[in-house]
Design goal:
The chain has 145 residues and is an alpha+beta fold. It folds into two domains: 74 residues, Nuclear Transport Factor 2, Chain: A (Roll), CATH 3.10.450; 63 residues, Nuclear Transport Factor 2, Chain: A (Roll). The chain contains three helices and nine strands. Strand 2 and strand 3 form a beta hairpin. It is elongated and about 50 Å long. The N and C termini lie far apart (39 Å).
Length: 145
């Protein structure tokens, strides 16, 4: 009985978190289908004033964010360090040899691209940001306990 209640609670929370296509604004669906016609495995979720589509596009996991008017407000995707611009790769190799990458993603919006990378070692976790792909700046740094 306890397992059944937990399973039901998880199922209901999933229904709230993800909106089916029938719950997504028609303007948003039309804009998405126009921009990403070959997208696969599309899953929708909603926020206060936006819709988020998580999908596969060109064999990459991509997330598209739309406002309620169907306007694309940003794209994100997880990526490999090998997909970074060469100067950013070289900078990481030179300055962070004792770190490993635990997260890396790209944010594209309004004709600009920003990269965020999380680097860790035994003592700390550092998030770097590169706006424009020229160099890294420290976005956040925390000590591990």
């Amino acid at each position: 009985m306890k397992k059944m209640i937990i399973t039901l609670a998880v199922a209901l929370s999933t229904l709230v978190a993800f909106a089916g296509e029938d719950n997504v604004n028609r303007k948003v669906l039309d804009a998405f289908n126009n921009e990403f016609a070959s997208a696969q495995q599309v899953e929708w979720s909603t926020g206060d004033n936006y819709y988020k589509a998580a999908f596969i596009y060109n064999n990459k996991h991509v997330f598209a964010f739309y406002n309620t008017d169907g306007e694309l407000i940003g794209l994100t995707r997880y990526m490999s360090s090998m997909d970074l611009p060469m100067n950013l790769q070289l900078s990481l190799k030179k300055s962070y040899t004792d770190y490993w990458i635990s997260d890396l993603f790209e944010v594209a919006k309004n004709d600009s691209t920003t990269y965020y990378i999380t680097l860790e070692n035994a003592e700390s976790k550092t998030v770097l940001k590169s706006a424009g792909g020229n160099s890294w700046e420290t976005y956040q740094k925390t000590k591990k306990i």
